[in-house]
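Deliverable D4.2, example record:
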Amino acid sequence: MHLNRSCQRLFGGAKNYSLCTATGFKLNPRPFEDIPGPKSLPIIGTLYKYLPHIGEYNFNKLHKNGFKKLSKYGPLVKEEIVPGVNIVWVFRPEDIAEIFKAEAGKHPERHSHLALLKYRKDRSHVYNSGGLLPTNGSDWWRIRKEFQKALSKPQNIINYISVIDNVVRQFVKLCGDKKYDDLLPLISRLFLELTCLVAFDVSMNSFSIAEMQVDSRSSKLIDAALTTNSAILKLDNGIQLWKYFKTPLYKKLCTSQKLMEEYATESPLSWLIKK
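Output generated by the structure prediction step:
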């Protein structure tokens, strides 16, 4: 997780110590600079640790990265993937709770989805904000409240019970029809189908034979979403040249987002006509 400087006073330093090292209920803070972690080099930070074949970590395997860091450095790990931007990996739930209590407040500030925020700000003719994930502060709270109004009312949930149940039954049947070495593609289809039902009141027929083809609309949307997530992680945590010109990876993000825009801005009726 990324930290504001005001939060750094909370953190302890010695290996295998957490910020919950306390006498009674009193925290015993240690210097932020003493938190253990991978060595950061000038200019490249810890990016050398993520180089293919020779690096210790892999941007596509966060769970394994986290396990290695926890095993080597303990439950608090400091890292500068990009020089000047401190990231602290927090593994203990008790420590995470302390951070939220001390820092979050009503409007949390997250240092993530920066490339996606730039993309959306550059396309103000399509977007009137950065969206729920990239936005922070009072703007984030305003967007979140609008989502809550639409998605949290009991009646709205009740209205979708039968259609969601039908989709889940299709998913379970497919899972039982044959063995899958990797269920992720099928789970992605489930999430896409449920999202479109709730957000647009439209079924994508994601489990149909036609939509299971690689060149189908649902397959392209799923691929665009996966590409977006992968690109965001690397763009946010690497050297941020995309802020000044369109790097190849930033272009991939733009292409994926534009494809998703095209489908999202079409009317639900036009989707039905095309089926």
